[in-house]
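[audit] Reproducing an earlier prediction to check determinism. Same input, same settings, fresh worker. If the tokens differ from the archived copy the diff job will pick it up downstream; this log only records the rerun itself.
[audit] input (302 residues):
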Amino acid sequence: MTISLDGKVAVVTGSGRGIGRAYARALAEAGAAVVVNDVDTDVAEEAVGLITADGGRAVAEVVPVGSAEAAERLVNRAVEAFGRLDIMLTNAGIVRDRVVWKMTDEDFDAVIETHLRGTFTCVRAAVNRMREQGEGGRILVVSSIAGQRGNFGQTNYAAAKAGIAAFARTWAMELARLNITANAIVPNAFTRMVATIPGMGAIVEAAEAGQPVPDTIRKGWGMGLPEDVAPLAVFLASDEAAGITGQCIAAGGDKIALWAHPRELSVAYNNGRWTPEGIAQAWQTAIGLQPETYGISFLQKQ
């Protein structure tokens, strides 16, 4: 079986570099025409050049995502250049990492604007176009392990990425009758953002220099190059994934994984309203026997 995206048109936000560029190139290699988005004109045009040099079709739209106007520009660019829109992949993101007592309003707002609001506005604009076309479509949003587990110094980023996972579950319900699927990719790859995490800089630098990534990282951490994540986007954008929606699916290194949704793990009941003392006892004897872990395990070992 060969997965083909011939005749499909995709917008990939934040696709001038890193994982975004890998997504865009992989979608183009599978046959899709791609709108490359970045805030840097030179970087966006370079990505377009790589795609077209390989025989693919791509155009650039340079705009920071977040506003409704930016989202409309991206969708309109796809329609003007290629006549339609079938795939919206919202990858654009920034980090402003600080512990909570040092995080400024500006740090918080910038990350929420790009990740959370940018995902919302781009998907809203894409869905409106897909509804007009009446042929379904694919919404691929990008969450993260930090959004699933939390991560030190990433109040803003973790909150945004957790919200994006909730977007996918909500939109899966809302868009089902329109034949539009919505799934969240949970990527794990060496990028400029990952390099800012304490202890990760040297590992990222070695990988970018072409040094082999050890199996302990590719399999144990499920982390590798951006190109290791991109095939998941191609699959989820294809007809073969028509029955998959509302899922958070991870890819990185040699590993793919399906993340669990939040659910009740243990329960206790009382005859009538609970008292604080009763809750304390229930915690010790029933519901709190195996409390949930948190944080990203391989980063905590750095």
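[audit] rerun output stored. Observation attached for the diff report: The beta strands are 9-13, 33-38, 57-62, 87-90, 137-142, 180-187, 248-252, 255-258.
[audit] end
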